[in-house]
Amino acid sequence: MADIAFLSSKPSFSPLRLQDRSLGWQAGAVVLGTLFLALSSYIEVPMVPVPVTMQTFAVTLIGALYGWRLGAVTIAAWLVEGAVGFPVLAGGAAGVQHFVGPTGGYLFAFPITGALVGWLAERGWNGNRVVLAFAAMLLGNLACLVLGTMWLAVMIGTEKAITFGFLPFLVGGLLKSALGAATLKLFSGYKPEPTDLRPQE
Question: What is the mean pLDDT of residues 110-115?
Fold first, then answer.
């Protein structure tokens, strides 16, 4: 008697389903992810000592769509590009000096942020549950701000670091978290076609 092979009814954490793709697909996703991160760096509001950009939006979204492992790898690859001289950091900046200056803590926090959001997404904090997706994005933004501010505090003191490196970014982090959750919800409407619904002999 013939039966039908169905895909698992358990929803994927990401509509991209990169965890089920080949290494070639995943490598391509890394390249596209670094391009997206680079583009987000050019959307900038100059501030001192740290500018406001759309980088954290891109970092959290990459984590949520790629998962914690591939997300962290993609973000790290983007940072390596910036360190070796490609103009992919905030405002088209490049060079290793940005990793030891006031922005260094935020840059090093990005892979951790992406991994955190990706880890939560894999556990259901994703576009299928938009409130949890928002919470995951918000936690990622807060983690980035806390780690970046700690680095900045070593350079300019705790009070100044909180005043200039933490508080001004809270509202932006909230808005970018909401935008990230909405984007994930939009993506979650995409359902890939089953790969095999043919009768089995």
Answer: 98
